Each structure stands twice: as C-alpha cells, then as structure tokens.
Amino acid sequence: LGAEGEAEVSAGGRCGRGVCLAGARVTGGFFGRSRAGSAAGKLEYLWFFGRNAGALGISWGPRLVGEETGHVVSIHLSAFEPFPSGRPVGSIGAGMVAGFGFGDEAVRGGWFGVGVFWEFSDIFSWK
What we know:
0% of the residues lie in helices and 76% in strands. By secondary structure, it is mainly β. It has a seven-stranded antiparallel beta sheet, with no helix packed on it. Strand 3 (34-49) and strand 4 form a beta hairpin. The model has no long low-confidence stretch (mean pLDDT 89).
C-alpha cells in the first residue's frame, strides 16, 4: 500500500472532435516503507460532452521503489467538470488508472489507483 503525489504538463491541439495532448508526468511518494516515484511520457485524448470533458491516456517510463527499478505502462481515464464562472480558472477532476510494471520485484506486477485533482488550465477553452 502506498500514496504518491503527481504533477503533469501537456501541450497539444485540436484533433477530430477533441484535443490530442502529449506531455510528461512525474510522481513521488512511498510504497510500503520505501520511497517511490516515476517519470513518464504520456499521450492523451480529451473530448467534450455536455458541460464536462473526459480524457483517455497512456503513459510509460522508468519507476523507482526503494533501491529497485523498472518501467511502467499505465492507462488513465479521467472526467472533468469546469468551475462556475467567476471562480478560479480550471476544473475539478476524478480519475482511475491501471498499469503494469516490468523490472525488479517491487516494480513488477499490476496495479490500480483512483484520484481527485484540480486541473489548473482552462481545458474548456478548446470546446
């Protein structure tokens, strides 16, 4: 069992009915009693429905758990709701992630996670 914080940066443009994004994701925290973290590249597709938006992404990159290393591949599914007018720019989101790790024992295997987050950019300006 563990907990990690995450930061992401992305750039992209219009793509069909949505937005195609490429970027990076960095995580850090703990897994069991060991420090853990990863740095990953990501590709993501963002689409709009009603007032809200959804995103489907894939990320891949190296991961560290204590002294053990490996690589992870993960799939991310997120939903976003914009803040009302006059509130801070951005949206609140919730997401699920599932992945698989390759490498040393602490990294190897499947995993699943959920999260709630604040998206600081105005993704709805692409709508």
